[in-house]
Specification:
The chain is built from three helices and no strands. With 78 residues, it is mainly α. It starts with a helix and ends in a 15-residue tail after the last helix.
């Protein structure tokens, strides 16, 4: 298992990158809403969704074996 793939941005796959971006944007929006005095319960669901997406991406990433593709380009052999 190459655990660095979970926390190293360069090794992240698109699912993880999208999830992290989504989490950050949700958190920023959440903070802004909080500053405006608006409490939005649905943000909790957003975090869960992004979290699930990140976990899904991490699993996909960890299952992906480097020897499966060319080292120059990511060609998926069918």
């Amino acid at each position: 298992m190459e655990w660095f793939k979970i926390y190293n941005p360069k090794a992240m796959n698109s699912f993880q990158f999208i999830a992290v971006t989504g989490l950050v944007m949700s958190a920023v929006a959440h903070i802004l809403m909080h500053l405006w005095g608006k409490e939005v319960d649905s943000f909790n669901y957003l975090y869960v969704c992004w979290g699930v997406l990140f976990v899904f991406g991490s699993i996909q990433n960890l299952r992906h074996k480097p020897e499966d593709d060319d080292h120059h380009h990511h060609h998926h052999h069918h």
